[in-house]
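Dear colleague,

Following up on Tuesday's group meeting, I ran the structure prediction for the two-component complex that the binding team flagged. I've pasted the input sequences exactly as they went in, so you can double-check that nothing got truncated or mislabelled along the way. The structure tokens for the whole assembly follow below. Feel free to forward this to whoever is handling the docking comparison.

Inputs:
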Amino acid sequence: MLRTRVIPIVLLSGYSVLKTIKFDERRNLGNPITIARIYNTRNVDELVLLDIDASKQKRAIDFFTIQDIASECFMPLTVGGGIRKIEDIRNLLKRGADKISINTYALENPDFISESAAIFGSQCIVVSIDLKKGPDGYFIYSSIDNETTKLNPIEWCKKCEELGAGELLVNFVDLDGTMAGVAHDYINQIANAINIPLIASGGVAVPEDAVKIAKAGASGVGISSIFHFTNYTPLDCKIAMNAAGILVKI
Amino acid sequence: MITIIDIGIGNIGSVTRALKFLKCKYIVTDKKEDIENSTKLLFPGVGSFAEASRKLEASGLKEIIEHQVLVKQIPILGICLGMQLFAKIGFEGGIFPGFGFIDAEVKLIEAKKQNLRLPHMGWNNLSSSNLKLLDGTTANACFYFVHSYEMKLNENISHLTTEYGTDIVAMIEKDNIYATQFHPEKSQEQGLKIMKNFIELQSIC
């Protein structure tokens, strides 16, 4: 039976790892290669690396950082940040990425999802979606403002699937870095609306929150803060999940 | 020495990194003469059956690979799409011929009926560890799968399955032909053991 994944999400800005709070306040955490090496020895299920400044700075995530990480990580790597060209995807795959996460540019040009999926296969294309809670419920949070960001998030999730995304990575911005508990009800709504795997992240404070995300129907639990700032490890999350009857790879 | 067939569809990088880590000599090639001189072949693959099938025919490599595998009987390892291409026919993106090393067809996993997500993506275990390439792996070890199509066997050969709604063919051994639906090069320590076992197989020629 398929295991529910525990996936550390490593945020980069250029060459350094950082952690944000609600996507804003930042803490610098050092060198990405060292951090990836630690996760490699901890035998995590997968690693997500996102350069959160790449889109804003109109550049793509640094290819050589990815190459260094991939040379010693024999696990799936999802890489994202500033990707707007087929050539960017090709370059990252060559350097060891397995899946490519597209966020800003998918909103600007949704056809890029189908274009890239047609070339590299759906299994390679992850659409990452940032959600924020407003007075009328969740909305798509982005530095750009267009028709797509006005879409109901659930509709956008479905659209991404239709366009050929192989997986969704949904981040809850208000919960980011807060370790304040997870949006399991909304995760459940998304999970029920789509037929592709869903990774949900934001707000995991204790291993039991990973259980809640998994029970809400996510195929993978994205975690960042507690692995950086507390003593909890991916294994602790898996032990909690296993105890709650969720199948994990231990 | 392992000859990695590169028809421009694979995640060649991941495979070569794993071989490098295991200190195994390899070449990556799409040249006929390299494949004619090969003593052990590795056929990795990510992408669509249709595109791969077309490229194999158009490049003229198909016949040469067939000769190496069926006449010279050198060991070959197919990974993911590489394994699927060993079948007679694939139904992804139309109806396309594979090598036909295995009497099998490649079809979409019947997920809808069972409310399963596609691709089948993530870590899954195998029905047993009773195949040569699994020597030294842990019982009930998990391997990393990413696929939406599966191989349906029409002949009785040694194989293992993984469960995703139904039993899906996950690994095959038939004479000199070895294949995994999952990605050993992305399956951490346990996957690297499979790669190592393949590297250490004695070539009969």
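The helical segments of chain B are 12-21, 32-36, 49-59, 61-71, 81-84, 188-200.

Cheers,
M.
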